[in-house]
Amino acid sequence: MPKDHGIGASPKRREDVRFLTGAGNYTDDINVHGQTYVHFLRSDVAHGTINSIDASEAEAMDGVLKVFTAKDFEAVGGLPCGWQVTDRFGEVMQEPKHPILAEGKVRHVGDPIAAVVAETPELARDAAEAIVVDIDELPAVVDMKAALEDGATKVHDDLTSNLCYDWGFVEENKEAVNEAFKNAAHVTTLELVNNRLVANPMEPRVAIGDYSRANDEHTLYTTSQNPHVIRLLMGAFVLGIPEHKLRVVAPDVGGGFGTKIFHYAEEAFVTFAAKALNRPVKWTSSRSEAFISDAHGRDHVTKIELALDADNKFTALRTDTYANMGAYLSTFAPSVPTWLHGTLMAGNYTTPLIYVNVKAVFTNTVPVDAYRGAGRPEATFQLERVIDKAARELGVDPAELRRINFIKPEQFPYETPVAVAYDTGNYHATLDKALEMTDYANFDQRAAESKARGKLRGFGIAHYIEACGIAPSNLVGQLGARAGLYESATVRVNATGSISVMTGSHSHGQGHETTFPQVIAEMIGIDESQVDIVHGDTSKTPMGMGTYGSRSIAVGGSAMFKAAEKVINKAKKIAAHLMEASEADIELADGQFSVAGTDKSVAWGDVCLAAYVPHNYPLEDLEPGLEETAFYDPSNFTYPSGAYFCEVEVDPDTGSIDILSFSAADDFGNVINPMIVEGQVHGGVAQGIGQAMLENAAYDENGQLLTGSYMDYAMPRAADLPSFSVDHSCQTPCTHNPLGVKGCGEAGAIGSPPALVNAVIDALHRGGYPVEHIDMPLSPSRVWNAIQSAK
Amino acid sequence: MYNFDFEQPASVDAAVAALKDEDALPLSGGQTLIPSMKQRLNAPSKLVSLTAIEALKGVSAAGGALTIGAATTHATVAAEASAYPALAALAGGIGDPAVRNRGTIGGSLANNDPSACYPAAVLGSGATIVTNAREIAADDFFDGVFTTALEEGEIVTAVKFPIPEKANYQKFEQPASRFALTGVFVAKTADGVRVAVTGASEEGVFRWTEAEEALSANFAPEAVDGLSASADGLISDLHGTPEYRANLIKTLTKRAVAAA
């Protein structure tokens, strides 16, 4: 019998009522009295020297307040990077300045050159067209390998080259890895591309700057996943505004997927301009603008080699990756191809020796940063592809090859050779579950039926590991993070027992307003309707680090749990006083405090009232009130894992792919709300299939984005997807957080691309077309071309 | 979008008169024009809406022909062109419901997008485009990408389709836009078979005459087996090479014949 409330129940998402009835409060719904509008004049060339900007005509237009250029920002900082990577020679990465408006050069299509503030958005746009910019175009740096050649045009003239860093991990193992390859019985090699993506949240970015002259206070309303992080980065490093004079509000946010983590120029601009003009300034991105100003994701080019012994055991893994940083370092860009990628290269396997080399490269393209999964999809894709290729070369069943190399259940906790220690897992269980869900036994019969219709049926497996619950602050500090990654929560019990939880986590679709109350309700035994979640406003919530890396429940939920524990402990003291009993004898269940072994009890609400109306209260021992704050810093990452199986049919005449079934068996540890977890997997798988089959941010050799609208950038639609079969019954709870949770937000996007690609390659092989690899997206034309080349 | 004047006349004559102003453009469903204006790529001084002219609307079948008013939406054609099922199916597959409820056949033909569906049906059916001034045979109407035989200020008022014995349209969608990456319309009449291809050529919709000859002799998918569409002059873009599109032309032609 499924639970109907508390942890493990699936109440419907309470926030959906407002989202689905048009009552949401998104940033663009906010209008501040007297607001003006900014339009950014953006570069239409990828690389060039700015000779002059003549804004005189624009500034003279009626309704134009001011045209800003880089000159207006000489006294403020550039956009900071939140992570410093140290390369394999012990040197820190090259870190170019990232100005708010282009200084001297433009470095990608979309780079903002000038900003017009006017009384209406239309006027601002009209005026932007009247600005005359004289640019000498320079050769565009687009291809990463060419960018690193001697004599290549430099994106940043003040750097020594276009190389941001050359990272080796684990550098000390390099020679041992090379030695293992020399002794291998078999080596499988694969070269592949992890395609560049545009996140495309449903809500484009918006920012409103407001300034109060009366008390010198700034307010920034922005579409952010982490308002406190923006306040810190922008306040301390860009504009020099102390925290107590800067409020950042991220109200309802319509999807983030990583791209709304980062601190963007537009946020700093509206905050700065609002004070300069003493008028609120609003910016609303168009979809076209989002394509060339939101940080992109992925964009790795990799060569991976897997060494196996005569028993088909993995003996070593070696990878060589080029990671595109784009024109500037976005907030967390350097961490993605390194610590969020290299540390996952062990996957679910006992490979003893691993060496990962990553060269991060500057190019004249939009900056690249974290996107759903961030580094872990890139790691999983190459690993699960090369294992599949090895299985084919060796003539072994791909499930069996994985199984014999899995870390065994009894080996946990397991130290990988790439610096992380998995606390729990049972990969055999998830693999078996997925096989069961997929009816693998009858595949051959289905394949024969497809063949009779002229179609090629294939079956693909991927197993993934990810590191979530980001992250232990002292560890990431050693790795180059310039921030702590704890989370905070305040549990404020009101006088009649209702509860407001102020959390540093931010919900932009995840359902925190539903799931977080489930935890509190379970702990206290009250109805979930008595608990509300407050998030997204630095003036209301304690300093927290926000939502990304599948960390909300694992880190933010744990902070809330700790704060609620403190509340309960204090409430027990009050209850003990009210019942004239010993605190040690007080038990809390179903919203009632009782004295063990007696029939004495007092209700939750009465205890809360006593805390705020302390007439009968131990005032000499206890302060009145019932409100506690906790900051939780995890001691390790969490390690969700799972097996994803995909069955496809390929039309050899057109190259089109029909996904017939998709099964996901995930181990997320304990699950708070199964319905929401399933929804997260559905969304993640849809995004992963989008990457694998449809999406591609493609640049031409001049640095022009060829896929700058939905006419050419293919988003996944419902009709492209099968009805997913998902399961999360294989649960090995996390051992180091109080809820035993691991996080589920990114899993779908991590596990699904290799499952789909493996299935298509399998279909082609079974159909007599020995194609080793097709780079994503597996568009019909790419699949058809591969078939032709294999004929 | 820049400012513009707007008129919504009730008759074709009034619309023709209103279009005499410099930089005035006719507006039908606006599915191409409005987005291009929003992107500031098009800046007419005046839009003359054709959607209030009742004479331009409706679907009627008589004497073996189907006549569709130029301002009839795709959704209406999908629902009401039951006398010509292949055409109704084509209309029902254009864009999405929002597009089908605004976009019109006349607008689509006057625009002549190289990847649009209707040009394939009109050319494949050997239809006649009726304007305020004359009647134009389909073979004379399409004049390259986004170009037609229409004169300045000339308005499409209706399209007359001879109803074939058999017909079918096969559309292979471009993954992003869902326009035709390649689409093939095949129609069999007493006079023979016509095969019209959209989405594939740099010159816009065209007839695959070799296939027409082969299918006129034997209306069966196998009749096309020995042929191959030439890749010369076909579109090369992110979504497909000329060779890929040539393959699609042949594959879709066979499928259209099989389904007709």
From TrEMBL, chain A:
UniProt keyword annotations, A-Z: Molybdenum, Oxidoreductase
Pfam families: Ald_Xan_dh_C, MoCoBD_1, MoCoBD_2
Residue ranges of domain Aldehyde oxidase/xanthine dehydrogenase a/b hammerhead in the record: 21-139
Domain of life from the UniProt record: Bacteria
InterPro entries reported in the protein's UniProt record: Ald_Oxase/Xan_DH_a/b, Ald_Oxase/Xan_DH_a/b_sf, Ald_Oxase/xanthine_DH-like, AldOxase/xan_DH_MoCoBD1, AldOxase/xan_DH_MoCoBD2, AldOxase/xan_DH_Mopterin-bd_sf
Protein name: Xanthine dehydrogenase family protein molybdopterin-binding subunit
UniProtKB/TrEMBL annotation, chain B:
Residues making up the signal peptide according to the UniProt record: none
Entry keywords, A to Z: FAD, Flavoprotein, Oxidoreductase
Any single Pfam family the record assigns to this protein: FAD_binding_5
The keyword rRNA-binding is annotated on this UniProt entry: no
InterPro entries per the UniProt record, alphabetical: CO_DH_flav_C (IPR005107), CO_DH_flav_C_dom_sf (IPR036683), Diverse_Substr_Oxidored (IPR051312), FAD-bd_PCMH (IPR016166), FAD-bd_PCMH-like_sf (IPR036318), FAD-bd_PCMH_sub1 (IPR016167), FAD-bd_PCMH_sub2 (IPR016169), Mopterin_DH_FAD-bd (IPR002346)
UniProt cross-references to SMART domains, sorted A to Z: CO_deh_flav_C
Domain FAD-binding PCMH-type: 1-166
Name of the protein in its database record: FAD binding domain-containing protein
Protein's organism: Thalassovita aquimarina
